[in-house]
Design a protein that fits this description.
This protein is an alpha+beta fold. The protein folds into two domains: 71 residues, no CATH class; 127 residues, no CATH class. Helices cover 48% and strands 18% of the residues. Strand 6 and strand 7 form a beta hairpin. The longest helix is centred in the last third of the chain and has 31 residues.
């Protein structure tokens, strides 16, 4: 009987001595940011910590805010305002291109279509001019499809101005987006436009 009691006491003790020491719990990794949005009341936010920047949020107009601290209502409001401002500026850029680019060479003034496919066509003609003999006069179409006869020197002047204006618009768009991302308040945000991309 003593041997049985002794065995009952010793076996668990031996097993406990042989069991591995439990490893410490891993230190939680801080989030890289939060998906957040404003509740329908307009006075509170919801947020969810994330460790990988999401490509799709899955809720109505949320935003991703980087950082390890949960965002405030003011931070979410600013982030939503920044996103709306970027969309407005992008729409303004698209509208400018859709309206065409007005160029002048001597007595000729024409508004040329400036969507991506139109830009490509004018570039292709420019490449052709640079690589093959061409007649002294070309015919191009303005934004309304009206034919415009131009000399080769006129074409170079028109397309030079055309390219500079489009490049200027693109630079303004990039600058405006950068300015929007850098602001810390809605007052500064309201000053940034495609025409005034720095908001200064």
């Amino acid at each position: 009987m003593k041997n049985l009691i002794l065995a009952l006491v010793l076996v668990p003790l031996i097993a406990l001595a042989q069991s591995p020491t439990p490893s410490p719990r891993p230190t939680p990794v801080p989030p890289i940011g939060y998906i957040a949005g404003i509740e329908s009341s307009g006075t509170a936010i919801w947020s969810k910590a994330v460790h990988v920047a999401p490509a799709f949020y899955g809720r109505h107009i949320p935003v991703f805010i980087s950082g390890t601290t949960a965002p405030t209502l003011a931070a979410v409001q600013l982030a939503l305002a920044q996103r709306a401002a970027i969309q407005t500026i992008t729409n303004s850029y698209a509208a400018k291109l859709a309206a065409g680019i007005t160029v002048t060479s001597g007595s000729l003034t024409a508004t040329l279509a400036a969507n991506t496919s139109d830009q490509q066509k004018f570039d292709e003609l420019l490449i052709l001019l640079n690589t093959a003999p061409m007649p002294p006069t070309l015919t191009i179409a303005d934004i309304h499809g009206n034919p415009q006869p131009v000399t080769v020197p006129q074409y170079y002047t028109l397309i030079g101005s055309y390219g500079q204006q489009i490049a200027g618009l693109w630079t303004a768009l990039a600058t405006a987006k950068s300015s929007v991302a850098a602001v810390t308040g809605t007052v500064a945000l309201s000053k940034i436009t495609l025409a005034d991309p720095t908001g200064q």
